[in-house]
Design brief:
- This is Cell division protein ZapB.
- Keywords: Coiled coil.
- With 85 residues, the protein is mainly alpha-helical.
- The chain has one domain.
- It contains one helix and no strands.
- It is rod-shaped and about 120 Å long.
- The termini are far apart.
Length: 85
């Protein structure tokens, strides 16, 4: 009976050590998850900023395209005037 008790106590101690180790691993994992969640939030904010900048650049690009078209038309008119002279 005493041998069985010793064996059981040994197994219990072993299990307790394993539980303690798993708890430590869980703490590390939770810490890593929190860190990743923070990084995800930061990246999302950066993406919002980048999308906003892209939208502004697209608007500017459209404006520049229109200006270029107007300049091309003016140059064509000037070229026609020069040809007539």
């Amino acid at each position: 009976m005493k041998e069985q008790n010793k064996d059981l106590y040994s197994k219990v101690e072993n299990l307790e050590a394993q539980v303690k180790e798993v708890k430590e691993q869980n703490k590390d994992l939770y810490s890593k998850v929190e860190s990743l969640e923070t990084q995800v939030k930061e990246v999302k904010e950066q993406n919002k900023d980048l999308y906003s900048k892209v939208e502004k650049l697209e608007v500017q690009n459209e404006g520049l395209k229109k200006q270029n078209e107007e300049i091309v038309e003016q140059l064509k008119e000037i070229l026609e005037l020069i040809k007539k002279k």
